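@channel anyone free to eyeball this complex?
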Amino acid sequence: MAAPKLMDFDRALELFEPVLGFEVHVELNTKTKMFSDAPNFFGGEPNTNVTPVDLGLPGSLPVVNEQAVRYSISLGLALGCSIAESSRFARKNYFYPDLAKNYQISQHDEPIAYRGSVDVELPDGRTVTVPIERAHMEEDAGKLTHVGGSTGRIQGAEYSLVDYNRAGVPLVEIVTDIIYGAEKDAPELAKAYVSTIRDIVIALGISDAKMERGNLRCDANISLSPRGSGILGTRTETKNVNSLRSVERAIRYEIQRQAAILDAGGTITQETRHWHEDTGRTSAGRPKSDADDYRYFPEPDLLPVQPSTELIEELRQALPEAPALRRRRLREAWGFTELEFRDVVNSGLLNELDATVAAGASPQAARKWWTGEIARLANVAGVDSASLVSAEQVAQLIELIEAGTLTDRLARQVLEGVIAGEGSPAEVVDSRGLAVVSDDGALIAAIDEALAAQPDVLAKIRDGKVQAAGAVIGAVMKAMRGSADAARVRELVLERANSAPE
Amino acid sequence: MTSTDLIRLTAAELADSLAAGDVSSVDATRAHLDRIDGVDGDIHAFLHVARDAALARAGEIDRIRASEDGSSLGPLAGVPLAIKDVLCTLDMPSTAGSRILEGWIPPYDATVVRKIRDAHLVPLGKTNMDEFAMGSSTEHSAYGPTRNPWDLDRIPGGSGGGSAAAVSAFEAPLALGSDTGGSIRQPAAVTGSVGMKPTYGGVSRYGAIALASSLDQVGPVSRTVLDSALLHDVIGGHDPRDSTSIPDTWPSMADAARAGQREGALKGMRVGVVKQLTGDGFQSGVTQRFTEALAVLESAGAEVVEISAPNFEYAIAAYYLILPAEASSNLAKFDSVRFGLRVNPPGGGTVEQVMSATRDAGFGPEVKRRIILGTYALSAGYYDAYYGSAQKVRTLIQRDFDNAFGRVDVLATPSAPTTAFRLGEKLDDPLAMYLNDLTTIPANLAGVPGIGLPIGLAPEDGLPVGIQFMAPARSDARLYTVGAALEQLLEESWGGSLLSRAPELATATVGGR
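replying in thread with the prediction:
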């Protein structure tokens, strides 16, 4: 496939205004599925986490997962939405082999949460309010694997395998209103929006929110409106965008692609487009029209969802702090400069830092270790920093440094031991014998020896010329091969000088 | 007791004999299996007979009865019963009368099936039905029609013709049915048996292969009102697997039926006759017997008044939009991917082509007709005019019922406008077939309970006529009281049950014991 023509991004923005809209699907981490008691569990042998309900066997009936309803209400509240006194499930009818019943139980004209907004912070610190149209509950579909053919896609495949383990996993779909005015920040806004949704669901504890596993999926709608025309362009819906970086890239790509087509007098086809991480391009999916007829009707097997006011208030009270507010609060509490703080946020280490400080470490020390040595090691290993060590371990390491048990150099060795699974920092100190020598006996012997070797220095100290102690301290540190706490050595030198026999 | 005696016992009588140790469940079960062997070649009530499993289960129950645990057995323990093929059974094929499910054995029992097993009833087999319960004659079964024991050239009603024929031909004392628009009550009427459609939500639908989810209800089929009540007590109650099942606790239906057998049970009972469900379109013998039954009620102290339910006129039209709409969606799962028939088009094909070929070969014409109707009624641009309007009519019909039950305790109608018609008579005229459910459909649309029981034979053709009583939602017990009371008065006047007057069936030579 030849590379499509792209217009320079800045030029595209001169000619067109990008208009955005997002549909984010959040997989809830409930114990069981949306409508059955099958485990909601990622992985597993194909078709093992299923019941007759998930397989759509004749006679089976759905039952609503109450935990999923609570999670959905919490999410709706966190998005500033109104919660419907009564919402209803509906059947969305279409034939597809990953859809066991050939209809999806979703919500149509009566979603559980509607009309909200979410504040999104751009990298330059500007805050944009994204309007939320609705958040509704639905079930996930199964997964098809296309076998044969070169692309792994359905076209050209010899046969397809279907795994219903994911069928019936609870989803909340968050739909934004049309977003105008993003302008040149459209790609960054897209990334920041999805990132904010991820922060919210993590803070709520309702989803594992791993984009690479599909816990969080973003369909990005974009169209271009010619400057001054006041006309909305034809939109495309880009799917398969499963990292924050891809969201940003996909939007940028679509703006450039659509702009080139429109500028050449072409028209945009209303369709879904697939994002390809490797090539950094989108390709055409199926045509999508506003007239797609899913023959929605109220799901007769389920009663309306009518949460009590008490439940809604209980969940409202239990809401965690909004991510934007939390960031503001932490920055002030930690006393970081804007640069220091953005460094932490952009490294995705805010939660780790917060937990480390909560475990007793000073904010600056926590920042130093997480964004420094730990980030370096994570980078080398190609993994997440958080997967290397826990906040508690880092806090303990910092505590050992501040107590004088470890120097920074020794602490790096201890960190290696902790990462290698040798135990807690204290255990690694013990097993590797890495502690700063604090046995005063050994130190005193070395000090006495050094003082005896430099009687002139001893005399100066006794005369109150304290700064003369430096020479003795240096000798002692050398003798102890660095494994002594310099401050303690200094203390002892002064003490011995003044008490030692003439 | 001879096996001829055993099959003539009501379920309640058989249960008493079993409890008293006069007869074993194995003997009772074998007597019914032999009867099936003898007459079902003509009747074709059964799609599957589980002879060995039934005898084995009966033997187990006899052993429990003989052991210390014997006293824990329920009132119907050891009594055989037949199960409509719409219900999922772990150990028997469950086809819903369709080719597309031929040979399919579900990996689970319907809740009602689990309940009858837990209550130690003995499943004899699965009964014939119109494909996916779509029909009023059992002629739409993919496996051939069931015949009416009163006249083998006539239909046994539908969709539950198999269950009704099985009890009226003495092949089983009890059966399970399902009723979406009359599939329990209309077959009861044309075979001279009893059937009850409980309040929507009174009995679990879990494991009942869905036709129209908002209308379907599982219920009992029997030869007497008390027997239906006894079975209702076993299958009723809340099921957490069916979100539409009512969480209430229910009174004993059997007690309610026994109360009806006591002197004066009908005194002061207000019975409403729905003006719109009498007169034109009803066979004269049906109207005659219905009028006589009302007179019997009055003579026993009931007060009979005429009630108007103006919106009932639109019930069939609304029903034939709601039912196909829901059915078109419910039947989408029959696509060959996970279970059931798979037909590969010549030379192979895409998954869509395989689905189409399978559905084309697996569904009969009536099913296709309703899927197409329902798909159309739900389509964008037509939804409001069809499905939306039908739901409004449904609300109006519920309002008519509310108004009526403000004035009377129960409503009475003939169970069906005609007696059993001849096989083939209405097969090419769907509308005429649909009209046979004229009187039963309103109860499904409103979710209220309805019971059907025999009230005599039409003079012109000598075939059974049935009466239907309806009560407010959750007042199922009242129907058993009224039904048992009328049944008792009629049987006294007849000097026995109506079914004792049914013609003897020729029995094939069987091994017996």
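from a first look: Chain A touches chain B at residues 52, 55-64, 91, 93, 95, 97, 100-103, 160, 162, 291, 293, 295-297, 300-303 (CB under 8 Å).
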